[in-house]
């Protein structure tokens, strides 16, 4: 009997796109059935802290808190390069030092960078879909938009600051901005873990190479909450050649993120991302 492995991801266009080669049966694991769950990214962060899923999408900023129970996967990653979440406010307003801001979750990468840059801001957390309206209604002075929200928002709003600019200032270079990835439960036997990771790598690669076929299918089935043009733009940003496998510069960016979090007191220990990967070389040794 095949094992059922829970795979949780967000309902955002990039995650749906990267996962659905598995859902449509284009790619399958060797001895398991993947059961997918879609939920808001901060809900998934909180679920990972509780160990609820076998494989889960997370904000990269969460990972140091779950490193003992979950391995970091090398695929289905989203980085910003010259773009990313946006701190927005009503047009013509000026923010005080202790302005009230809505963020999409305590463990999101944008929250970590925001808290470093604006230590006096008063933070409230809410679902990212509610942030724009909260700013428009005056419930908060500003908010950080993420996911597809960065592409389409009210003309009554303006960008106060790009999280990308905060990242560049803090990181001191041209490293890509680490946003989200996936992790896998460490209690899963290693040979299975390697197979599951390879399945996900293939799924992201197949989706990327067959975007012209897959994207219209997702739109036709109503699985994506944006129109075709916005989906195309969004996939250009967050589901592309750089999403298939972590690169050396992406590892460097992750390590810089964790260094910043440690330096500013958010993490107890300084970690290196490569120390927490699944040792895929085990498979080669096992088969030799």
From TrEMBL:
Pfam families: VitK2_biosynth (PF02621). Pathway: Quinol/quinone metabolism; menaquinone biosynthesis. Keywords: Ligase, Lyase, Menaquinone biosynthesis. The active site is at residue 147. One of its GO terms (biological process) is menaquinone biosynthetic process. GO terms for molecular function: carbon-carbon lyase activity; ligase activity. The keyword Transmembrane helix does not apply. PANTHER family: 1,4-DIHYDROXY-6-NAPHTOATE SYNTHASE. HAMAP family: MqnD. Belongs to the MqnA/MqnD family. MqnD subfamily. This is 1,4-dihydroxy-6-naphtoate synthase. It comes from Halarcobacter anaerophilus. The lineage of its organism: Bacteria, Pseudomonadati, Campylobacterota, Epsilonproteobacteria, Campylobacterales.
């Amino acid at each position: 009997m095949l094992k059922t492995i829970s795979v949780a991801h967000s309902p955002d266009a990039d995650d749906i796109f990267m996962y659905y080669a598995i859902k449509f049966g284009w790619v399958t694991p060797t001895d398991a059935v993947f059961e997918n769950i879609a939920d808001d990214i901060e809900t998934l962060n909180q679920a990972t802290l509780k160990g609820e899923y076998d494989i889960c999408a997370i904000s990269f900023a969460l990972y140091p808190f779950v490193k003992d129970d979950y391995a970091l996967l090398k695929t289905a990653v989203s980085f910003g390069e010259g773009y990313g979440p946006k701190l927005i406010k009503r047009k013509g307003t000026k923010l005080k030092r202790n302005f009230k801001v809505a963020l999409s979750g305590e463990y999101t990468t944008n929250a970590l960078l925001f808290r470093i840059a604006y230590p006096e801001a008063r933070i409230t957390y809410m679902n990212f879909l509610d942030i724009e309206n909260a700013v428009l209604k005056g419930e908060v002075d500003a908010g950080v938009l993420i996911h597809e929200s960065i592409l389409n928002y009210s003309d009554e709003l303006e960008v106060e600051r790009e999280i990308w600019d905060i990242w560049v200032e803090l990181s001191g270079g041209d490293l890509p901005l680490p946003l989200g990835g996936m992790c896998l439960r460490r209690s899963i036997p290693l040979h299975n873990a390697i197979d599951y990771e390879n399945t996900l790598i293939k799924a992201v690669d197949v989706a990327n190479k067959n975007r012209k076929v897959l994207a219209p299918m997702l739109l036709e089935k109503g699985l994506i909450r944006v129109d075709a043009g916005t989906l195309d733009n969004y996939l250009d940003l967050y589901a592309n050649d750089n999403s298939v496998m972590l690169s050396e510069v992406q590892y460097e960016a992750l390590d810089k993120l964790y260094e910043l979090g440690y330096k500013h007191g958010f993490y107890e220990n300084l970690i290196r991302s490569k120390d927490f990967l699944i040792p895929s070389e085990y498979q080669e040794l096992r088969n030799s």
